[in-house]
Amino acid sequence: MLTFLIAFCSSLIATFLLIRYGHIHQHLSGDHDLNSPQKFHSKIVSRVGGIAIALGVCCSSLYVMLKDGNSELIIPLLIACVPVFGIGITEDLLKRVGVRKRLLFTACGALVAVIFIPATISTLNIPGLDKLLALTAISIVFTCFAITGLANGYNIIDGFHGLSSMVAIITLGAILYLAFKLNDLLLFKLTLCMLAAVMGFFIWNYPRGLIFLGDGGAYLIGFWIAILSILLVERHNSVSPWFALAINIYPIFETLFSIYRRLIHQQKNPGDADGIHFHTLIFRRIIKKSSENTLSKDGLNAKTAPYIWILVSINAVPVILFFDSTIALQILVVLFGFTYLYLYRSIVLFKTPKWFRLD
User: Rounded distance, CA 301 to CA 297, Å?
Assistant: First the structure.
């Protein structure tokens, strides 16, 4: 309980202070770009909410370490987060750190985690591929790629008030439940650290968008969840390797589909920003169309995230129930992919199914 309170209160108070004294740092931390394809807010807002989350996670993790020990895991985990959060918050302040540089720093953090925790993906229950993962070098490279990809995925889905943070809360809740069920006290507490810190931020971010997560916060959350997902699988043979993929399928699929859309379909650089992510289409084709003259831009913004929350929650429940069944989890991954593509295509063609409308 004290672990939760330390993380939650640290994040909650730090976020409040960042908002309260925004006039001091907003010339650096503010998101001044209101017109690019991925911007849907109506006023300049600070995008350094990740500082509060980092503070909450750091304080609570150090408390866990001082109380229970486990420094051999917690210290390298916190050190691994430094380049990830550092490059993200640098982008939030300077607004000119390229995608490649951010991914490189995130990969460096992943390498630290893989080697010194260690947190490696050693099996996927796929014949042939498992033989390759048995080779240390290939396992390290693949794991770094997976961790970096998920961290970037959380940055990609961070487009509307409460979207990325609530997806993280749902995912962390699932990991927390399994850690409790499997009696893994250390993973339970480390999950609780991030869960509580994100909740402390979420209160200020949704629905009014008083502060944004920023790249620092998004990368840190995705990175932490990636490490926890891998550790849960590696520490417990009863957990299918596909659990890590299935519980994180939304940011992963959004990332892969965005790469396909830009690189193959549009023949553009996959790192270029565009305005046709799944959450963006929901905002433009469903929310704005049904509420054009009744809500402010920020009000419309806040109505977007619940569509994704519901989709992620519906996926999370069976993933938790079938955490030990590779076949069931593979089916769930495929079902999510088909559902995503069906809804995406339907919205693009202005044929959104009635059951997907919340108005």
Answer: 6
Predicted confidence (pLDDT) per residue in 72-101, tens digit: 999 999 999 999 999 999 999 999 999 999
d(C-alpha 193, C-alpha 228), whole Å: 11
144-172 in b/e burial notation, b at 16+ Cβ within 10 A?
bebbbbbbbbbbbbbbbbbbbbbbbbbbb
End-to-end CA distance of the chain: 38
| 38: containing domain | 2-356
Average pLDDT in the 129-147 region?
97
Measured distance CA(126)–CA(326) in Å, rounded: 10
Residue that has been written with the tokens 């390797």 in this structure: 241
> Residue 31 pairs with which residues in a beta bridge?
45
pTM listed for this prediction: 0.95
The answer for 128, left when phi > 0, alpha when psi is -120 to 50, beta otherwise, is: left
Total number of domains in the chain:
1
What SS3 class is residue 183?
A: coil
Contact, 168 vs 198, CB < 8 A?
yes
Paired strand residues for 30: 46
Q: Which of 214, 210, 225, 228 is nearest to 41 (CA)?
A: 210
Cα separation, 24 vs 201, in Å, equals: 20
Show the tokens assigned to 247: 């519980």
* The predicted structure's pLDDT at residue 36: 56
d(CA 263, CA 188): 39
What's the half-sphere exposure (Cβ side, CA atoms, 13 Å) at 290?
16
Taking alpha carbons only, the member of 53, 63, 62 closest to residue 84 is 53
Task: Report the distance separating Cα 16 and Cα 18, nearest Å.
Answer: 5
Residues in the chain: 359
